[in-house]
């Protein structure tokens, strides 16, 4: 039975898994985006999001707690100085996982995991209206409707001109 087995063990011992997730978290913090397998990305998301939440209050205790997980001074400094101010108003969801397909060698599903606030391509920008086949037909239907009032005004002018002569 599967009682109380809530996380993916990733086929590793506990020490190996902790070291791997710490190394991946350091890489994610330093590079802002990494490519890995989908299972590792999901495990890393559960590992790194509480650490980012902890950085919102820059105290000695929170720095020590984060350092206990990462064991890398540069990564901790990057987390508290660069990442924390950007995510200060965000209530959660600091990372995004985007699936990439399968790896050629072993057909493992791959994905990249990135920090949400550091992706310029996905930043909130005004989106252009989608062009679909239906929207094109609506545009054509609106164009004659605009021309119709102009035609009526020309007809009224021609009708008024003979009246003026009489």
Question: What can you see in these coordinates?
Answer:
The chain contains 5 helices and 3 strands. The chain has 166 residues and is α+β, with helices and mostly antiparallel strands. The chain has a domain of 105 residues: 50s Ribosomal Protein L17, Chain: A. Strands 1-3-2 form a 3-stranded antiparallel beta sheet. Strand 2 and strand 3 form a beta hairpin. Helix 1 packs across helix 4. It is globular.
Helix and strand layout, with pairings?
Elements: H1 14-31, E1 33-37, H2 38-54, H3 60-70, H4 73-86, E2 95-102, E3 109-115, H5 133-165
Antiparallel strand pairs: 1-3, 2-3
Helix pairs in contact: 1-2, 1-4, 3-4
Secondary-structure-based class equals alpha+beta
Rounded to an integer in angstroms, the radius of gyration calculated over CA atoms is 29 Å
Give the helices and strands as they follow along the chain: HEHHHEEH
> Under the CATH scheme, which architecture of the domain at 14-118 would be assigned?
Alpha-Beta Complex
The total count of strands amounts to 3
CATH class of the domain at 14-118: Alpha Beta
Give the proportion of residues in helices.
55-70%
CATH superfamily of the domain at 14-118: Ribosomal protein L17
Low-confidence runs (pLDDT<50, min 5 residues)? none
Order of strands in the sheet with most strands: 1-3-2
Main beta sheet: strand number and arrangement? Answer: 3 strands, antiparallel
Q: What is the helix tally?
A: 5
Which fold name corresponds to the CATH topology of the domain at 14-118? 50s Ribosomal Protein L17, Chain: A
Average pLDDT reading: 85
Straight-line N-to-C gap: 102 Å
Shape: globular
């Amino acid at each position: 039975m599967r009682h109380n087995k809530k996380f993916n063990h990733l086929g590793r011992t506990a020490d190996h898994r902790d070291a791997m997730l710490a190394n991946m978290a350091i890489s994610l913090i330093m590079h802002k985006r990494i490519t890995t397998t989908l299972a590792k990305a999901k495990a890393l998301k559960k590992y790194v999001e509480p650490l980012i939440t902890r950085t919102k209050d820059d105290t000695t205790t929170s720095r020590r707690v984060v350092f206990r997980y990462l064991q890398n001074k540069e990564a901790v400094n990057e987390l508290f100085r660069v990442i924390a101010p950007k995510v200060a108003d965000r209530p959660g969801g600091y990372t995004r996982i985007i699936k990439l397909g399968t790896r050629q060698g072993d057909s493992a599903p791959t994905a990249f995991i990135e920090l949400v606030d550091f992706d310029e391509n996905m930043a909130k920008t005004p989106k252009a209206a989608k062009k679909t086949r239906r929207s094109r037909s609506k545009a054509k239907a609106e164009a004659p409707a605009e021309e119709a009032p102009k035609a009526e005004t020309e007809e009224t002018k021609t009708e008024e001109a003979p009246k003026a002569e009489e």
